[in-house]
Specification:
The complex is a heterodimer of chains A (about 200) and B (about 200). With about 200 residues, chain A is an all-alpha fold. Chain A has one domain. A two-stranded antiparallel ribbon of chain A has the order 1-2. The longest helix of chain A is centred in the last third of the chain and has 31 residues. Chain A is globular and about 65 Å long. In chain B, about 75% of the residues lie in helices and about 0% in strands. The chains are: A mainly alpha (about 200), B mainly alpha (about 200).
Chain lengths: ~200, ~200
């Protein structure tokens, strides 16, 4: 099993939150702009990589009966580190993400990777897995954020992109738009993978 | 607060600022258990029960343990441990004393530990500086709002079995789109309570 394979599977094969339908709350809540989406993605990636590493190093020491509780404590510690660091250095982003920073603790992607991968594999493979899945998550959040920001506000990354008479479609940056936007993106991903499968079968 | 204020507070938590559709908390189980009505009602009961208990206990932990010891920065770790322990405890006690209810809620109880709505409500209670009675009311009203949205959504989703839809939308994708329209319907309540 090569490290590159562990890394790249997070980018398409199991890309969260589309293939692994986990951790939806931050996806829906913070993707009102590309910038917020990326901030959330990077914070999650950091916690995911660190917790994967630690879980993998401790996998022979933690008794399997209390492993979930142990994983949660490990994840929560890293979340507190991220929370305090963001509060100190990127305060506007910290305020924009609000309650969803402490809620990284209960992001099921992180616990899911600890249970499904890091608890059974070595540290290097676990880091590669964490980086891949985290990066996939960041990309998804950024793209969804950009999509919603473009339609709902006419901008991407704060830069105006639409024509002069463009009327912002505020539905997209409100709560309902989050669900619909994610649903449409999921259907798009399904569509692409169906097409890819068909091409593979024909070849 | 007067009685009228409390009523507004409850209506706001259930309908206007619905925890699931307006605040996006607890969406994984929302999509996971809403395929069938009986699992949806089971999950709703478990959420109401645990959310009220967790709201009360985390409030007590915050003001009688974390604040006196000046370790508020450990809030996240402390709360998630309290919730995990609480869920475990509830499971053990319920299995012994209320076996019928335990069988009904069974598999939903352990799932609740990672339901971010429970931790989310606990954190909101502290951030908004609610007193103990407010906490109790807000936790209960939020849980009722969660259950309402979950049961309504399960009712809609059961109908999906009868309709034809494009293959790429099957499963979660159409679920999300429908949840969006449900959220749109709920946002119609926004005028009920002026902020």
């Amino acid at each position: 099993m090569s490290l590159t394979k562990e890394f790249t599977k997070g980018l398409w094969e199991i890309i969260p939150p589309f293939r692994l339908v986990l951790g939806l709350c931050p996806v829906l809540a913070v993707t009102t702009s590309a910038e917020n989406g990326m901030g959330m993605g990077l914070a999650t990636t950091f916690v995911l990589v660190c917790s994967n590493l630690l879980v993998s190093l401790l996998r022979k020491i933690i008794p399997s009966k209390v492993r979930i509780a142990a994983y949660i404590v490990i994840i929560a510690s890293f979340v507190v580190i991220v929370e305090l660091t963001m509060q100190a250095y990127v305060f506007p982003l910290y305020q924009a993400l609000g309650i969803f920073i402490p809620l990284i603790v209960v992001n099921c992607i992180i616990l899911g990777r600890a249970e499904a991968f890091a608890g059974k594999n070595g540290p290097l493979a676990s880091i590669a897995d964490g980086l891949g899945v985290g990066l996939g998550f960041t990309i998804s959040l950024t793209v969804l954020g950009a999509f919603r920001e473009l339609l709902g506000n006419g901008t991407i990354w704060g830069a105006n992109l639409m024509w002069e008479s463009f009327e912002p479609f505020t539905f997209m940056v409100r709560a309902p738009g989050a669900f619909v936007g994610l649903g449409v993106m999921l259907a798009l991903i399904n569509f692409i993978s169906v097409k890819l499968d068909q091409r593979k079968r024909r070849a | 607060m007067s009685f009228g204020d409390y009523m507004l507070f409850i209506v706001s938590a259930i309908l206007v600022n619905n925890i699931l559709l307006a605040k996006f908390l607890g969406n994984c189980p929302f999509l996971g258990v809403s395929r069938r009505m009986d699992t949806a009602t089971g999950m709703s009961m478990a959420v109401i029960f645990v959310m009220v208990m967790a709201g009360m206990i985390t409030w007590l932990v915050q003001y009688y343990v974390l604040v006196p010891l000046e370790i508020e920065y450990l809030q996240t770790i402390a709360f998630i441990l309290v919730i995990a322990a609480l869920v475990q405890l509830v499971e053990i006690v319920m299995a012994k004393s209320l076996p019928a209810l335990y069988r009904a809620l069974g598999i939903f109880l352990p799932l609740i530990t990672t339901n971010c709505a429970v931790l989310g409500v606990a954190i909101i209670n502290i951030n908004e500086e609610y007193d103990f009675v407010d906490t109790l009311i807000f936790s209960f009203a939020s849980a009722v709002g969660y259950s309402l949205a979950l049961v309504l959504f399960a009712g809609i989703r059961e109908r999906f079995m009868l309709v034809k839809m494009p293959k790429v939308f099957e499963g979660t994708a159409i679920g999300l789109v429908v949840a969006g329209f449900l959220a749109l319907a709920f946002s119609g309540f926004a005028g009920l309570v002026s902020h």
